[in-house]
Amino acid sequence: MTVPWRAVAMVTAEVSRDFDAMMQVPASEFEAAFSGVTPPSEHYFDTRPDDRTTFFADIHRGLERYDGFVRDNLSWLGTWDIDLADVLSPVELHYGGTDAMSPAAHGEWLAAHLPAAELVIHPDAGHGDICFGLAEHLLGTLE
User: Fold this and answer.
1) Which of 2, 80, 82, 92 is the most exposed place for a label (fewest CB within 10 A)?
2) Residue 121: DSSP 8-state
């Protein structure tokens, strides 16, 4: 994907605005600070305190640089550097019905554009339920 530098600057400024202050708090306070931007529908870590601690430590490390976060966000704004119709391998898509970060409508769109896609919408699942709760299942589908 060709990324215009003006868009990179704009998204970087927004990410900086949203996360710079949060990154200045001590690591021990980061979880509470980051939880303030978490959608209220997210409950995956409520019963997994050890996983929650690991997750927030990883997020804190990941936000030390914004370049990956910015690229992810820019990928939503423009054309992709692949044609989804060319993806002929089977694709298993899982989306949570209560996911505010990656709504099921995104999966419906992808399924409509991928020739060999299977879409599963988990009605009561949030973002964490899909990203973390299905990790073993999804990794098990790889050959």
Assistant:
1) 2
2) E
Per-residue pLDDT of the chain (143 residues; tens, 9 = 90+): 455 777 788 888 888 888 899 889 888 899 888 888 888 888 899 999 889 889 888 888 888 888 887 877 777 777 778 899 999 999 999 999 999 989 999 999 999 999 999 999 999 999 999 999 998 888 888 86
Prediction pTM value: 0.74
Q: 44: how many CB neighbours lie within 10 A of its CB?
A: 19
Distance CA 113, CA 53 (A): 37
Q: Write down the residue that tokens 């303030």 correspond to.
A: 36
Q: What's phi and psi for 48, nearest 5 deg?
A: -135, 65
